[in-house]
């Protein structure tokens, strides 16, 4: 505690609470757990976006020699979507239900089995949709009458927009899942 604590204790601690009120300790723990949970959610989102983008581009290059998501589009997704995702996840206020959770130990992994499962399922879902459009998009979008280059441009634009909408959907439904858990 900041007022009645000894100087030795203050110097060796990571956090100093400026008042001696016990409710401040509860607030600090609640905020700490909230920040930790938000970091986990952001890492889950980041990994999902990047795994899906990597897999769709690698599979497309190996199979057809053409990438559906070019460098500028990937940069846009990383700058815009990740910034908005970080803001959405970082500004989530702590809830009282956080205090019902068990504390997380220092040796606990940041990426848990639940995060790995969510990452796998969501990335698989996105990759499946994007690969369907990549391999059969010309027929699905009825672009057979277009020139080959125009059909490819339209198909790749559609794939990019679908990829962005998948990220928005992921943020929206992931936050709904988290809200309903509390």
Automatic annotation (TrEMBL):
Enzyme class: translocase
Primary residence: membrane
Recorded GO CC terms: membrane
Cation-transporting P-type ATPase C-terminal domain location: 67-172
Topology class, membrane: Multi-pass membrane protein
An example Gene Ontology molecular-function term: metal ion binding
InterPro entries in the record: ATPase_P-typ_cation-transptr_C, ATPase_P-typ_TM_dom_sf, HAD-like_sf
Subcellular localization: Membrane
Record field: catalytic activity: Ca(2+)(in) + ATP + H2O = Ca(2+)(out) + ADP + phosphate + H(+)
Iron in keyword set: no
EC number assigned by the record: 7.2.2.10
Keywords associated with the record: ATP-binding, Calcium, Calcium transport, Ion transport, Magnesium, Membrane, Metal-binding, Nucleotide-binding, Translocase, Transmembrane, Transmembrane helix, Transport
SUPFAM superfamilies: Calcium ATPase, transmembrane domain M (SSF81665), HAD-like (SSF56784)
UniProt KW Metal-binding keyword: yes
Domain of life: Eukaryota
Classification via Pfam families: Cation_ATPase_C
Protein name per its UniProtKB record: P-type Ca(2+) transporter
């Amino acid at each position: 505690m900041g007022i009645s604590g000894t100087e030795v204790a203050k110097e060796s601690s990571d956090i100093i609470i400026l008042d001696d009120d016990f409710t401040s300790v509860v607030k600090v723990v609640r905020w700490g757990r909230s920040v930790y949970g938000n970091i986990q959610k952001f890492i889950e989102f980041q990994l999902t976006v990047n795994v899906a983008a990597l897999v769709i581009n690698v599979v497309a290059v190996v199979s057809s020699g053409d990438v559906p998501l070019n460098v500028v589009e990937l940069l846009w997704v990383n700058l815009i979507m990740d910034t908005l995702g970080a803001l959405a996840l970082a500004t989530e206020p702590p809830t009282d239900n956080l205090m019902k959770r068990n504390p997380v130990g220092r040796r606990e992994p940041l990426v848990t089995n639940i995060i790995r499962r969510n990452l796998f399922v969501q990335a698989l879902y996105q990759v499946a949709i994007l690969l369907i459009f990549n391999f059969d998009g010309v027929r699905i979008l009825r672009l057979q009458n277009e020139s080959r280059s125009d059909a490819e441009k339209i198909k790749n634009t559609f794939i990019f927009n679908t990829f962005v909408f998948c990220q928005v959907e992921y943020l929206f439904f992931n936050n709904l899942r988290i809200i309903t858990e509390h």
